[in-house]
Specification:
One of its GO terms (molecular function) is ATP binding. With about 400 residues, the chain is an alpha+beta fold. It has helices spanning about 1-20, 25-60, 100-105, 110-115, 125-145, 160-165, 190-195, 255-270, 315-320, 360-370; strands at about 80-85, 110, 125, 150, 155-160, 185, 200-205, 210-220, 240-250, 275-280, 290-300, 305-315, 325, 330, 340, 350, 350-360, 380, 395.
Length: about 400
Amino acid sequence: MDEAAGELRAARNANAKAAKGKLSAEERRAVVEAGKQLKEQLVSAEAAAAVAEQALQREGQRLPNMTHPEAPVGGEEAAAELRSVGAPAEFAFPPADHLALGAALGLLDFDAGARAAGSKFVYLRKAAALLELALCSWALQRAAAAGFTPTTTPDLVRESLLEKCGFQPRGDTTQVYSVRDSPLCLTGTAEVPLAAVAMDCVLAEAELPLRLAAFGHCFRTEAGAAGSAGRGLYRLHQFSKVELFVVCTPEQSEALLDELAAFEEALFTDLGLHFKVLDMPTGDLGAPAYRKLDMEAWLPGLGRYGEISSASNCTDYQARRLNIRYRPSSRPTAAGGERPPARKGATEFCHTLNATACAVPRLLIAILETFQQADGSVVVPQVLRPFMGGLEVIQPPQ
């Protein structure tokens, strides 16, 4: 369509040039009329070209990222276990699942959630509500100590921002809640609003890596997620989460993925959980991810492992769509010399990474099931007690 518009521009210019020549009255009228028609045709062609370009850009944004050469190839079953941390909790009694524990301790009210909003909504009560706030405060405090800037973000974002981050806000299988008659959507992760912090920005290399940590509410339709594996707290339409987001240079991103994973491991180790670290296969990667490491904790009551966290390197996939750039500076090269400064004004695309520091419902499952006692009580992890007024044990009601 650009070619057609170009031909019309050439014809219009030729017509305008002809109008400057010596013409009879009749010839001039014909040239003027032709000019009007060419102008109308050009406006129409340029509008059609703009629509086609937008459609092409949108389809192009659906293409996934490249994958790391060491990422396992296949579906979820092909995930490679990198390491196992801690040991499974041992019990002298049959461990209950979090639903039974939550009911006995008066912590989880799914009936009220259903009355208020439908299935897969829950009221956290008593110590569970305190645990949610404690987990988020503790995770944010740890992130701040590690150099992340604590942030709170909007729960609503533009649909176009979701698309640029690699999410599909429309379609039968979308996980996104859209606001009717509005360009806004509810966020499924704070990664999306955090990405907007650097969108359309040119950063100095000295500013990188930019580390952000956000507490946010997450909203997901969980389309196609029915089944016993997702019952209880495991899959909800709304939950709280602390998310980490990093903007860096291309040279920094692989090491930063390891750094994010190490940060997550330290958190879950300090909580006293048993978990394994997985290198996720190509078939399980979202569109933006170049490589993704998952953490799966042992959930004794459910009798299986369950994902509690992930860390992803998205390379320049999101940065290109979000127009996040940086201006390189001089620095030593591998050969020991100094890389010459980029030509004046030259910029390069950044890389982005994201990781989950604390997904509240999944950690509540792990804590309740791992630290349950024979008398029905649950021991509060040591690191969370200062955030819960010193509470050490969640006791059953008398």
